[in-house]
Specification:
This protein is of the alpha+beta class and 83 residues long. The protein has one domain. The protein is 39% helix and 10% strand. It has 3 helices and 2 strands, in the order H-H-E-H-E. It has a two-stranded parallel sheet with strand order 1-2. The longest helix has 13 residues. The mean pLDDT is 77. It comes from Ignelater luminosus (Cucubano). InterPro entries: PGBD (IPR029526). This is PiggyBac transposable element-derived protein domain-containing protein.
């Protein structure tokens, strides 16, 4: 039990600039980085910082981006968005 708690603290520190959802995705996919795998997730987990991090780690990602997201770029079309 203590090992899991310590691991959670390490993950929280490692990705402290991201929210809980993004930290969960990174923790679950970390072993698959550099393999050009594909990760799919819904809008709760989709953050542009997360997509950029996965891209750097050579992991493809697909997720729904909400228009009302704080980090949503202003230039994205309101009816359909691609990243």
């Amino acid at each position: 039990m203590q090992e899991n708690a310590r691991k959670d603290v390490e993950v929280s520190k490692k990705y402290k600039n991201l929210g809980l959802g993004a930290r969960v995705v990174l923790q679950l996919t970390e072993q698959e980085w550099e393999k050009y795998g594909i990760v799919f997730f819904d809008n709760y987990f989709t953050l542009l910082l997360l997509l950029e991090k996965l891209k750097v780690e050579k992991t493809l990602a697909c997720g729904t981006i909400r228009q009302d997201m704080k980090s949503c770029p202003k230039h994205m079309a309101p009816d359909i968005m691609y990243l």
